[in-house]
Amino acid sequence: MVKKKAFIFPGQGAQKPFMGKSFYDTYVEAKEIYQLSEEILKMHIAKKIFSSDEESLKRTDFCQIALFVTSIAILKVLESQNPEIKPSVTSGLSLGEYASLVASKKGTFEDLLKVISLRGRYMDEATMDLAQAMVAVIGLKEEAIPKKYQIANINTPGQIVLGGSKMDLKDVETDLKAIGAKRVIPLNVSGAFHTSYMEKAKEKLAPAIWMCPLIDSDIVCIMNLTGKGETKVDFIKQHLIDQMTQRTRWLDCVYTMEGLNVDYIEIGPAQLSTMNKKMGLKGETFCIQEVKDMENLFETV
Q1: What is the mean pLDDT of the chain?
Q2: CA 182 to chain centre
Q3: What's the pLDDT at 151?
Q4: End-to-end Cα separation, the chain, in angstroms
Q5: Which tens digit of pLDDT belongs to each residue from 1-30?
Q6: Is 20 left (phi over 0), alpha (psi -120 to 50) or beta?
Q7: Are strands 229-230 and 159-165 parallel, antiparallel or unpaired?
Q8: Catalytic residue among 71, 190, 194, 239
Q9: Which residues pair with 164 in a beta bridge?
Q10: Could you say which of 41, 127, 129, 187 would form a disulfide bridge with 134 (CB–CB 3.0 to 4.6 Å)?
Q11: Over the stretch 148-170, which tens digit does the pLDDT of each residue have?
Q12: Which member of 37, 56, 91, 94 is catalytic?
């Protein structure tokens, strides 16, 4: 029996130079997505991604656009080349929730790209007033984290990410190792995403999300905020707004999908597939980030 498929999409941090280029060079469907994004946003996107310009990809205001466009370009190729591979459920980490909405037929690429452009800009602006940081904590459970620290992401059973000002986190390594953390790793980001430091960005973005024309569909989206499935548009929009300042629960998203007995297909640069493979899940996890990955997928599923 063919197992159900979960299409999953990476979030900020997965981006890398040249991502998606093999699809751009091979399939017209991918090239059209990059070209359409440039027409809508009036900026050079493909040229920046398909170069060694790592600095542009580190910028929150550009990298969110780049990652979203790349994921959707690969998705469109997958849909055209093997239309029988369809998702019964979709999910994504943070930014990846927007690509998940395209895959679940709840929103269009064009409409969600405009929201993503604003999201990246507002989040970037929210980092400018105060020096912020994030750290990955290895070896502690959620309930063990002292209340003075803000949890931003719960990724796997052994990995939690904290965010805050650099002053908030100045003693974090000493504090957490004293209660059993194996490692506390600074992350290469400029902002304390999914914490109260994104409140201004949340307030600015909310109107654009409420105005975005999403529709109901039968494909369930597993949302970061609760780790549970949603089909109703108003609930989804509220989740997209609230996850700006609240923790993402990828671990709970995965547990929900495991209960649906699915195999996972990550579409875009590898991030979630790496986490999944560390969890010993029942379902298999595939990642499509190059054309050859898609060809290997066709031979497997």
Answers
A1: 94
A2: 26
A3: 98
A4: 11
A5: 568 999 999 999 899 999 999 999 999 999
A6: left
A7: unpaired
A8: 194
A9: 133
A10: 187
A11: 999 999 999 989 999 999 999 99
A12: 94
Which residues, 6 or more positions from 58, have their beta carbon under 8 angstroms from its beta carbon? 188, 190
Distance from C-alpha of 104 to C-alpha of 177, rounded to nearest angstrom: 41
Q: What is the mean pLDDT of residues 201-225?
A: 96
User: pTM of the entire structure?
Assistant: 0.95
CATH fold of 132-186: Alpha-Beta Plaits (3.30.70)
Residue 45's Cβ-side half-sphere holds a number of Cα atoms within 13 Å equal to: 29
Pick the CATH number of 4-127+195-300 from 3.40.366.10, 3.30.830.10, 3.90.1030.10, 3.40.50.2000: 3.40.366.10
Sequence ranges of the chain with CATH classification 3.40.366.10: 4-127+195-300
Task: Give catalytic status of residue 194 as yes or no.
Answer: yes
Helix H, strand E, coil C: the string for the chain is: CCCEEEEEECCCCCCCCCCCHHHHHHCHHHHHHHHHHHHHHCCCCHHHHCCCCHHHHHCHHHHHHHHHHHHHHHHHHHHHHCCCCCCCEEEECCCHHHHHHHHCCCCCHHHHHHHHHHHHHHHHHCCCCCCEEEEEEECCCHHHCCCCCEEEEEEECCEEEEEEECCCCCCHHHHHHHCCCCEEEECCCCCCCCCHHHHHHHHHHHHHHHHCCCCCCCCEEECCCCCCEECCHHHHHHHHHHCCCCCEEHHHHHHHHHCCCEEEEEECCCCHHHHHHCCCCCCCEEEECCHHHHHHHHHHC
Where does CATH 3.30.70.250 sit in the chain? 132-186
Distance CA 293, CA 181 (A): 36
| Tokens coding 115 | 């929201």
Sheet arrangement for strand 220-222: 229-230, 220-222, 89-92, 4-9, 262-267, 285-288
